[in-house]
Amino acid sequence: MSSIFSNGFYKAVFDACSDAIYVIEPQSSKIVDANTRAWLDLGMSREQLLEHSVVTLQNDVENEEHWEMIAAEIIKADPFTFIGRHCHQDGTFFPVEVYTSVVEFEGRQLFISIARNLDLTTSQREEFRTKDARLTYALNEAADGLWDWNVTTGEVFFSPQLKRMLGYLPHEMTPTLETWADSIHESDKTRVLDSLDSHLNGHADSYKAEYQIRSRSGDYIWVRDRGRVCQRNEAGEAVRVVGMCHDITHSKGLEEQLREQASHDDLTGLLNRRAGYIHFKQQLSYAQRYQQQLTVCLIDLDHFKSVNDNYGHLVGDAVLAHFVGLMRHTLRKSDSLMRWGGEEFLLLLPNTDSESAIKRINKLKDEIKENPVTLEGGELSYTFSAGLAGYPGHSQTFDGLIKCADDALYRAKESGRNLILISEDNRNVE
Ligand SMILES: Nc1nc2c(ncn2[C@@H]2O[C@H](COP(=O)(O)OP(=O)(O)OP(=O)(O)O)[C@@H](O)[C@H]2O)c(=O)[nH]1
């Protein structure tokens, strides 16, 4: 359809309008026609614009399925107004207030959307100088999502930016406290609500929390949320609370990555020695509290230096990875393996006595024998030695258990390697 405005006069009126006007096909969201202001605002030619749809132009409409819901909402509300963002040809976005009504033309249903460009830099609209328009603009454009909670009625105003942060359109999100509270991740909810309560009751200066909140797509994003009571009644009870919510998903991701890097070994993905200490101490206090046995096993690959010397460092790395792979495959879920040093590993076997631990480690020995490392020119076999110590029999402390296991490992090496020995120290080394 080239233009539905056959009458020249109405076409001239259409093009003289200072707001962008779009004629939209409800089913496909395709732009059927648009006035001059529309393609000027978008930095496109008219031909380019007519190749677009609402889904490609409107930043707040995610996909066709999302559009279907919005179209149904427009037909129900007729007219329907919302504040969103249009995509300029140069890749930037500008805020628009869009007023959409439904018309019937020659037996066909169409949407007429009038989009007012709210971008102050390109618009000199008089009415935008009014306080309300400025406030709308500020709320829409603020980098942080704002909320304003009327404690008495339970109503919450969620700013357009806050809704956008969570993937909602301006008419979505029921404005109640439950909408927010129900979206908080279960693992964070109690902590967040406690923090809010503590501020409402005057125990904390302000409300501050970092938590995960469910977005429209069902995925969770990380937010930093801050708020403060701005009005109390005569009894000192909070009446109105306002706050700001900032999307920190990206920095949380980096933080998580850094924490992972600081606690894990790059080559094998196992906990490194520093994180291993903490984990070991936790396992030991668990065994102490529930009076369970805990076997500690230090494992060291035999003659590993000669693997590096004969085959190169990369093959050495492959052997380490091969060993860890087989360990993962053989161990129980409750067992934990840590990289204690270069070719030395610490294995913790909770609720296991030393005899059962020996059986399990022997099984691993058989696995390694049956599954040598495959190299380009053939296969490479290797062995390991291990020293075991059990809580509470050999020692009841962290340092004592490590010392007993280390002594047993030393004896295994001294006795010819490829051996698994239990600590001989029954004196409860402290
Ligand atoms: N490829 C590789 N080699 C490592 C790594 N970490 C430590 N090593 C090497 O492991 C070797 C350990 O050598 P030694 O301590 O002499 O022990 P060993 O040759 O295994 O002899 P025993 O333990 O007495 O059987 C050294 O050559 C280290 O360079 C690593 O991440 N990758």
Features:
alpha+beta, Beta-Lactamase, Alpha-Beta Plaits, 39% helix, single chain, five-stranded antiparallel sheet, 17 strands, binds guanosine-5'-triphosphate, 430 residues
List the helices and strands and how they pair.
Blueprint: H1 8-16, E1 20-24, E2 31-34, H2 36-41, H3 46-49, H4 54-57, H5 64-77, E3 80-87, E4 93-105, E5 108-117, H6 131-141, E6 145-150, E7 155-158, H7 160-165, H8 177-183, H9 186-200, E8 207-214, E9 220-232, E10 238-247, H10 249-263, H11 273-289, E11 294-301, H12 304-311, H13 313-330, E12 336-339, E13 344-350, H14 354-370, E14 373-375, E15 378-380, E16 384-391, H15 398-414, E17 420-422
Parallel strand pairs: 16-17
Antiparallel strand pairs: 1-2, 1-5, 3-4, 4-5, 6-7, 6-10, 8-9, 9-10, 11-13, 11-16, 12-13, 14-15
Bound molecules: guanosine-5'-triphosphate.
Ligand names: guanosine-5'-triphosphate
The proportion of residues in beta strands is 25-35%
Number of helices: 15
Q: Which regions have little confidence, pLDDT < 50, spanning 5+ residues?
A: 121-129, 426-430
The strand order across the widest sheet is 2-1-5-4-3
Strand element count: 17
Helix amount, in percent?
A: 25-40%
Shape: elongated
- Per the CATH scheme, the topology name of the largest domain is Alpha-Beta Plaits
The major β-sheet equals:
5 strands, antiparallel
Radius of gyration: 33 Å
- What is the annotated CATH architecture of the largest domain? 2-Layer Sandwich
The CATH class of the largest domain: Alpha Beta
Total tally of structural domains? 3
Distance between the termini: 89 Å
**Annotated CATH homologous superfamily of the largest domain:** Reverse transcriptase/Diguanylate cyclase domain
The secondary-structure class comes to: alpha+beta
Mean pLDDT: 87
